[in-house]
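Example record for the data management plan.
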Amino acid sequence: MANLFFDLDGTLVDTLPGIARALNEALRASGVPFSYTAKECERLIGRGTDVLVHRALAHLDEPSLFAEVKAAYLPRYEAFQVAGSKPYPGLKETLGKLKGEGHRLFVYTNKPDKLAKELLAFHFGDGFFEEIQGQLETRGVKPNPEPIFAMMAARGLAKEDSYYVGDSIVDYETSVAAGLPLILVTYGYGNYGEEWTQKALFVAKEAADIGKIPL
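Corresponding structural encoding:
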């Protein structure tokens, strides 16, 4: 049986509506005179909240704004993250099938830990995933592989039976850092050509494809 470590945003759940709304309200509250569409937010996410805010402010020469916008963003995202978010089509059924076959499901994401657990409990129910590890202020974000190693060590999981599943370049970097094969999902936020798909052990063009992989 396989141990599957999943990214969250763009892999399990489409979260762009809440991210875009929270970011734009935070920018407006901080006096920043521009906003982003949900599509434009795709290029801002993937490496945690700090990078999201820094990228959003990248063309402004006002470093002092970072702390203000971040402080405005986090409570807004907590309030908005569920609104408009949804698991990708067929994903819940596919993951339920994998669990029924005995595969073990985990989540390692750069979304703040508390918010990741709340969002996944809302969409999948408490205890659906064996463990969820999100961003904590006390440690580095992905591609830091230590949370994966900790989850594996706590359960005696073998690396040769484990995979990382994600949609972004940082997920590829995480799989390399952890020494795990990558299952790249191309239905999420990444936009990959042949060069990137060749780096993955398997490619899933839709959620149901994950269930067809010979694990």
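Summary line stored alongside the record: DSSP finds ten helices and eight strands in the chain.
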